[in-house]
Amino acid sequence: MAIRRIIRAVIMGPPGSGKGTVSGRIVKSFELTHLSSGDLLRSNIKAKTELGLLMKSCIDQGQLVPDDVISRLILAEMRYMNNSSWLLDGFPRTVNQAEALDNEFSVDTVINLDVPFQTIKQRLTSRWLHLASGRVYNIDFNPPKIAGLDDITGEPLTQRDDDTPDTVNRRLKAYENQTQPVLEYYRSKGVLETFSGTETNKIWPHIQAFLLKKLSTEKEKVGGKA
Ligand code: G5P
Ligand code: MG
């Protein structure tokens, strides 16, 4: 479905909660531009940019990269998307980052994936990734058609350096300490919508229905124009 009104959305949730997976479905159904902070950082690491090399050890240790670095990087990318609908995945992740975003853009809706930590730990060790596109697979949940290869390009899949059990624990701690306050920030602004569950396939229809409803309400507000 083509969106004829600009919508600016953020998807949040702990590491491994399915942000990338759900973003893929939102992009397919609603044609928003997806911007993932993690994908952007990993492409800098792969390209061995100065920023990528500086940030690699932070990411490998499961720590957040500094607010000013990531805010500058994301906001610079976003200036190219000024007139399109977008979906931010992995940004903002601290209250400082949320304020930096607010200074330049207003957010219409925040989709929060509430998935138990125990479920997440099992998922991440079986995740495989196509680095160039950010497409994610899981050997139990959505395996590639040919083991080890991306469905679309046929290129090799890789595993993330930060998906080891120790690093996953550190990422979950960083989420509790630094990212959960962002949920409160958006709740107080009245834009937070939480979806709880342990399976993406069960959560997804609720998100899809929510977005459809949100878009039709917004269309009514602008006089019912398509
Ligand atoms: P990222 O890249 O933003 P995280 O840690 O927020 O990383 P991650 O790991 O990318 O989040 P996700 O996108 O929420 O997880 O989840 P996903 O990839 O869709 O799904 C996880 C796995 O589960 C996949 O294999 C998927 O197929 C499978 N799966 C999905 N649903 C189901 C299901 O129902 N059942 C099963 N069995 N499996 C399922 O950030 C990485 C690092 O970059 C830095 C930080 O260092 C961060 O740790 N960073 C930032 N630092 C500061 N500020 C920021 N804004 C930063 N952004 C990134
Ligand atoms: Mg992700």
Automatic annotation (TrEMBL):
**What is the catalytic activity of this protein?**
a ribonucleoside 5'-triphosphate + AMP = a ribonucleoside 5'-diphosphate + ADP; GTP + AMP = GDP + ADP
Positions of the region LID? Answer: 126-163
Binding locations of GTP: 16-21, 127, 136-137, 200
Q: Where is this region: NMPbind?
A: 36-65
Give the source's domain of life in one word. Answer: Eukaryota
Q: Where in the cell is it found?
A: Mitochondrion matrix
List the molecular function annotations (GO) for this entry: GTP binding; nucleoside triphosphate adenylate kinase activity
PROSITE patterns assigned: ADENYLATE_KINASE
Q: Name one GO cellular component term.
A: mitochondrial matrix
- UniProt binding sites for AMP: 37, 42, 63-65, 90-93, 97, 160, 171
Main subcellular location of this protein, as a coarse class: mitochondrion
Question: Which keywords appear in this protein's UniProt record, sorted alphabetically?
Answer: GTP-binding, Kinase, Mitochondrion, Nucleotide-binding, Transferase
All copies of the Adenylate kinase active site lid domain together span: 127-162
Enzyme class comes to transferase
EC numbers on record? 2.7.4.10
What is known about what this protein does?
A: Involved in maintaining the homeostasis of cellular nucleotides by catalyzing the interconversion of nucleoside phosphates. Has GTP:AMP phosphotransferase and ITP:AMP phosphotransferase activities.
Assembly: Monomer.
Q: What is known of its domains?
A: Consists of three domains, a large central CORE domain and two small peripheral domains, NMPbind and LID, which undergo movements during catalysis. The LID domain closes over the site of phosphoryl transfer upon GTP binding. Assembling and dissambling the active center during each catalytic cycle provides an effective means to prevent GTP hydrolysis.
PANTHER family for this protein: NUCLEOTIDE KINASE (PTHR23359)
Any idea what this protein is called?
A: GTP:AMP phosphotransferase AK3, mitochondrial
Q: Specify the species.
A: Umbra pygmaea (Eastern mudminnow)
Gene (name only): AK3
